[in-house]
């Protein structure tokens, strides 16, 4: 009997370890999402390391393969190699596939994986999907089970998300094909470049399959407008797309989230363009050599791309320092929640701006469009900004110390990485291995999201059954 016990003991130990690991990963939907994304990055790193993935048949160095995989899965667009010449057709297809997978988002992708494996979603996963993707969500705070029931079958929503992305990308590709041909692209090459640019614009990635990138279309307004449209649709988020498709122009019937996202996005788009016009109109290296029409178009294009698009027509390093600072601000904000864009999100900015305005006017509650925004949403917004600023600051210090590059240029690339934008001042392509690993980690944390990272670390919330005495410190 003792022999049987001792023989089965190792198996029991292995099963116990597996159960503990499974519980650790699946106890939190956010933690599960991080594991899924990390696994995908490792998978695509392996694929991009294969000799067949490079154009010359050599093995891509680990640092370059890992960085490209992170940038691909996290739909960022930064690269340490020349994307148009380094990768073979196989490598380009791997990147195209990875961008579309990553574009679905961390939480949506994790839920889809769960559906594919178990054919069903547990309550915790349903609450997660409801909280991050539910277009019917009209209040802040913890999502309750009743809201999940109103959402219906989460799998249907996630399928709708995937189909919506496919339909939008297909529509963009159909429109881009004749535009690219008219712009001088070979008809056969356009069959690949049209869907590639469509995917890269909608997912807000910014990779280009051709030598010269989007800069060769700098005077082709149709191509630039289509790319901006793709970036806009990808950056506003699936809940807003759902609302627009359902209620069209009935503004009063939009959810508060949709109103805040659209209004803030449009305001930042025009404010960014006007600011770039004022700061760059006399810069001979950028807008100074253009006429009024070209200057206006390029200002709007730059404003749209700094929000998370990642395509560039003018050299970022040629911008004035003041313009680079404005671009950093726009990149840090990013796009909408539950979207392919990164950053702290426009709704976070809107909520905090409204809270500051309400405090300045002495109002007890924070209100917008006839709705009251609860205090827990404001606390989450503050947490997102604080964690985001901390990640950017630490990464900037470390990379500046490693590379000895000007801090302004490093800061630009770090914020571009955190906001998963893809624009660069030239620092990224010259990074040593240590710097590329730090920047890859910044991309991962920016894409997964500071709130998701925090929730993964503290998966369980404990109720406090008592309250401490109140004492007010001096603030400000």
TrEMBL record:
Q: Where are the transmembrane segments?
A: 32-50, 93-117, 157-180, 221-244, 256-279, 380-402, 437-459
Location comes to:
Cell membrane
InterPro entries according to UniProt: Cat_transpt
Look up and give the membrane topology term. Multi-pass membrane protein
Q: Which residues form a coiled coil?
A: none
Q: Which UniProt keywords apply?
A: Cell membrane, Ion transport, Membrane, Transmembrane, Transmembrane helix, Transport
- Report the protein name in the record: Potassium transporter Trk
Taxonomic lineage of this organism? Bacteria, Bacillati, Actinomycetota, Actinomycetes, Micrococcales
